[in-house]
Every structure is written in C-alpha cells, then in structure tokens.
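[Q] Does anyone have a clean structure-token version of this?
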Amino acid sequence: MMAFLWLVWSGAHALYDNYRYGDERLKTINTFLLAYFLARVVMFFFIVGGFSDDLTAFLGILGLGVGMNGGVARRPQPAPPVSAKAGNLADLLPQPKSAFSR
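[A] Here you go.
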C-alpha cells in the first residue's frame, strides 16, 4: 500500500513538473496527462478502483509523460552573473589538449 501511495505521489509530482517547466510545445499534452492522471486517482480512491487495471493505467500515463518530455523537467537554473571585468575570450574557453599526449 505504501509503495502504491508513493507511486501516486511521485507520479503526480513528475507530471506537474513536466506541466510547469516542460517544453512550451508540449504544454497542452502535459496539461491533459496531469488532469487525466489526477482524475484516475480520484476515481480509484473514491468511486471504484481495481488495483491491477488502474496500476497499468497509472504507469502508462507516467511513461507517456516522461517519454515525451525526455525525463522529468526541472526548474531552470538562473544564469550566473556576468563579471564586470571584460577579459580576453580565450581565457574563458578551455585549453585544447593534444590527442596523442600521455
């Protein structure tokens, strides 16, 4: 029972992150998947729920959402501040290494 509740909570969180931080082109499908998942959860707990049938539906919805988004979307990290001192561009790039060096 605890594992199933963990699956429902984590699945809802993953679909919400994909809805909130995912690609704008997938906004409509992410909205649908989140709403469909939550509707299935409510139906499972309050109306009628068959564990084996609903488990495959929950995992299918989660798999489709994660597969379409290439994983779980995360909050974008803020860009690091640009230093006031403008240096040489070559100082910012990594130094090349010889392919044949030891």
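[Q] Thanks! Anything notable?
[A] Residues 27-47 form the longest helix (21 residues).
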